[in-house]
């Protein structure tokens, strides 16, 4: 696994990160966990045809930055 990211002000390509901190309430963490599980299932089912998906929270009380699941084996 590799982690990539960029700041809000950056227009550059994402950079590899050595650490990530999630500051989130339990509901948001559970939504993110479900998203990651769904990504894993879809990658297993679709293989290298599945490239990426953007996380979308149903919790409108908390603003979310872009979180993207990406398959490094994608075509």
TrEMBL record:
<feature type="region of interest" description="Disordered">
    <location>
        <begin position="49"/>
        <end position="75"/>
    </location>
</feature>
<dbReference type="InterPro" id="IPR029083">
    <property type="entry name" value="Imm32"/>
</dbReference>
<dbReference type="Pfam" id="PF15566">
    <property type="entry name" value="Imm32"/>
</dbReference>
<protein>
    <submittedName>
        <fullName>Uncharacterized protein</fullName>
    </submittedName>
</protein>
